[in-house]
Amino acid sequence: MTILRAMAVAFSTYSRVPVPYFEWKKSDIKYSLCFFPVIGVIIGVCTSLWCIFAGVMGINVLAYSLVTAAIPIIITGGYHVDGFMDTMDAVKSYGNREERLRILSDPHIGAFSVIMLALYYMIYIAAVSTIRETGSIIVMGICFVISRALSGLSLLYFRMAKETGSLDMVRQASSKKAVTVTLSIIAVIGLVAALLIDSFAAAGMAVGAFIAIYYYRHMSYKEFGGITGDLAGYFVCISELLMIIGITLAETIGTYF
Q1: Element at 139 (helix H, strand E)
Q2: C-alpha–C-alpha distance, residues 192 and 184, integer Å
Q3: Best exposed site among 24, 60, 210, 231 by fewest CB in 10 Å?
Q4: What percent of the chain stands above pLDDT 90?
Q5: Which comes out higher in pLDDT, residue 243 or 112?
Q6: Is 60 exceeded by the pLDDT of residue 243?
Q7: How far apart are CA 210 and CA 157, in angstroms?
Q8: 3-state secondary structure at position 16
């Protein structure tokens, strides 16, 4: 029952997948991060099935790309996109650290968040439009699992910008050992599966993931003094974009071998 409640907490927090309503207890959060990548599995399966179906049916590239970009938002409700927009507003304010943290907590959006979101999806859709091989499509689906596994691990081990808020509550309530082992195993399984499916695409995905996690830590520490819930959402978005770009480049290079 504890495991089922933990899964329900993860699904209700990080997705729009319907789950039974119940009053949360601290013990319900203990293992909830273990199920964070499961939402990525759902996104990945839906994305892969759509992309393969679109290829078989000869659906035009614009519809193919737009629906592919929309699937993660539909399943998550844009939970992480909100963090991306808040982060962009804060970073582009060019204020001091306290001002940037204040902007992260501001529910209003600014012009820069809209501009950067538009830029993000222009690049995202452009990258997705070139991924048409079945192997690369399935590896792209794995990206959504890897991004969430890395996000969960960073939550446990990266410095927090502030010792308050929902992210700190999840961190304090989580079983560090169980979550670390579970997310690490999921990440390794995802990478191995990707390598077996398409080694070129997997290599591109791995490079994108490495750049994303390195940049996330560097930027968060420099600009905010650590990570926050909004920055965690930002990381999910950026890591998926960089991994998809990596797959796109790898697929292109692979055509010459």
Answers
A1: helix 134-157
A2: 12
A3: 60
A4: 67
A5: 243
A6: yes
A7: 16
A8: coil
Q: Are 135 and 201 in contact (CB under 8 A)?
A: yes
Rounded distance between C-alpha atoms, residue 174 and residue 32, angstroms: 8
Flag whether pLDDT at 126 surpasses 90.
yes
38-to-87, 92, 109, 204 alpha-carbon distances in Å: 25, 33, 30, 22
Taken in order 144, 145, 148, 149, the sign of the CA dihedral is: negative
**Per-position DSSP letters for 20-85, written without gaps between them:** ------HHHHTTGGGGHHHHHHHHHHHHHHHHHHHHHHT--HHHHHHHHHHHHHHHHTTHHHHHHH
Backbone phi, psi, residue 21, to 5°: -85, 135
Residues 6+ apart with CB under 8 A from 95: 103
In total, the chain counts a number of residues equal to 257
How many Å apart are CA 102 and CA 108, to the nearest integer? 12
What pLDDT band is residue 165 in, cutting at 50, 70 and 90?
low
Nearest to 165 by CA among 113, 102, 218, 81: 102
Question: Which tokens hold the place of 116?
Answer: 């950067």
- Rg for the chain (alpha carbons), in Å? 18
- Give the confidence band of 103 by pLDDT, cuts at 50, 70, 90: confident
